[in-house]
Design a protein that fits this description.
Elements lengths: L18 H7 L2 H27 L3 H14 L1 H8 L6 H20 L2 H4 L1 H28 L7 H30 L8 H28 L4 H22 L1
């Protein structure tokens, strides 16, 4: 397929003919291992949620429900809205949620280590930024939208910041309504979280912009190759069934 010459100098595909069948068959064992780890973490998360019920802590029960819903969101996005996310991203999201609920809430890491909340927020912003970039790039890649590289980078940052802002509003609402302590130190906690959110998603925006302008091999290219591989395998399974 040819490159477009209207100012968007990005290839329509990053796989050359003959590579698709090869990519379909590689890393199968790695995918199975990642899927096993993801489901194992979900089981551990469920056990921790059950433990929070026995502790009769409404806050922990509420946090457990949020954590369980969040851990299955990648599957929901894939099934209901056809947002294709590789298995690696599902594992990363599940690991992040386990760190938040099991380490942060159950074992008090948020109170014991001042940097733990900032680390998780910057990491989550990076992940949401990555999801936003993959989504917008795949729309561009399939020619459903026509956009410049800077616009996709700005959208990536904006989406992650919107998610972070909504979460901070959610924390404030829960604290004011039910007397929880999700914000920990109030305004300082909120502003610190939003600042590290901006840093985390900006990294993805810069990396994504750089890739779309130069097409150099790197982290973003490897992620996109994995996404296309996953799409290819999913479409192949659908055609076989």
């Amino acid at each position: 397929m040819k490159r477009r010459r209207n100012g968007n100098k990005y290839p329509a595909s990053y796989l050359i003919p003959g590579e698709k069948m090869k990519i379909r068959n590689i890393f199968i064992s790695a995918d199975r291992l990642e899927l096993f780890l993801s489901y194992s973490l979900k089981i551990i998360l469920l056990m921790a949620a059950v433990d929070s019920v026995f502790q009769q802590s409404y806050f922990l029960i509420f946090s457990a429900v949020i954590a369980l819903v969040g851990s299955i969101m990648p599957a929901i996005l894939s099934k209901q809205w056809k947002v294709v996310l590789p298995i690696e991203l599902d594992l990363i999201v599940t690991s992040f949620i386990c760190a938040h609920f099991i380490l942060g809430e159950l074992h008090g890491f948020y109170l014991r280590f001042w940097w733990f909340d900032l680390f998780l927020h910057s990491f989550s912003a990076f992940i949401f930024g990555l999801v936003g970039f993959i989504w917008s790039y795949m729309l561009f890649y399939t020619k459903k939208i026509h956009a410049e590289a800077w616009f996709i980078a700005v959208f990536t940052v904006s989406l992650a910041m919107a998610v972070g802002s909504v979460w901070e509003i959610f924390e404030y609402t829960m604290d004011q309504t039910f007397g929880f302590n999700m914000q920990k130190s109030g305004l300082d906690d909120t502003m610190g979280d939003l600042i590290v959110d901006l840093i985390g998603c900006s990294v993805v925006g810069v990396l994504g912009y750089g890739y779309m302008r130069t097409k150099k091999d790197g982290f973003i290219r490897r992620i996109l190759l994995r996404v296309e591989r996953y799409v290819l395998r999913t479409q192949t399974k659908g055609s076989e069934s």
